[in-house]
Amino acid sequence: MEEFQFIESIRQSFYRNQQIIRGIGDDAAVYRQPYQDIVTAVDTFVEGVHFSKKTMDPFHVGYRVLAANISDMAAMGAEPISYLISIVVPTSWTDHELKEVYRGLNTIAKEFKIDLIGGDTVSGEQLVLTVTINGAVERDKARYRNAMQAEDVIFVTGTLGDSAAGLSILLTENKTVNETDYLIKRHRMPSPRVAFASGLSELNRVALNDISDGIASEANELAQASNLTVYLEQDKLPVSKQLNQFDPQYRLNYVLSGGEDFELIGSVAKQDWDKVVDIAEQTQTPVTKVGTVLDQPSKNGYVYLYHQGQYKQLKPSGYVHRN
Question: Does pTM surpass 0.70?
Fold first, then answer.
């Protein structure tokens, strides 16, 4: 399909978000946001590095790339508004497959009421999707990693390790695992925690990070950004019943280092924990207290994992993308 035909085929007939003034059709898009701070993020997904046709249908490629960006908005406490997508298109991808990629994008965009407002397409040797997402948050309410303080409660949403287990099933075609559909869907169609993160706006201080590279990496980012010491309790890290069927060693690796669950890890003051639980109930978001924060100058910037009476340093060990 010729570029302008493709652009015309994905142009929205109306805008879901009232802030959008002008989308596709001019040299740039225009949106208006008078009383909030603007939040922007960008992610690039490369075929053969971040996804492959062996593990992803074209629909899931589109769905997941935008889900990752929406999760970045959640981690900042922002409401997503619009996105732009640039696509490098190889000859090995058909027009039908490209339309399926867009259908995946549009499906999750509709769920979160965000609009496609522009982008670009060029030819290349492999499929590359670059999404830029725009969001907004109440002034001075964006959530930063360095907002963590000593004596905070550390929490996570959802369950951990499901996406990595789902990918493993797809790669190995493991026939011995039960309820594989749940784990595979968690890999292909993650659920960003926007409603929960937005609900936290009533709290004065929250540190947040989305779990894209595994909790081991994300907890270390919080510790380093705040120059404090994070303690996690291994037995409190939440896992699904579907993940529990795996050998404990594999299960722990998926939980700590698997990544791509796109859940949230965060910290709040002890006195605000009950409010976090209430917000989680209101937004139907599972949330679990998994650790605490201390100010220990000799250990600040590090994360320690407690299990069976012992503390071990938990180093960053995020998931390495495979074909």
Answer: yes
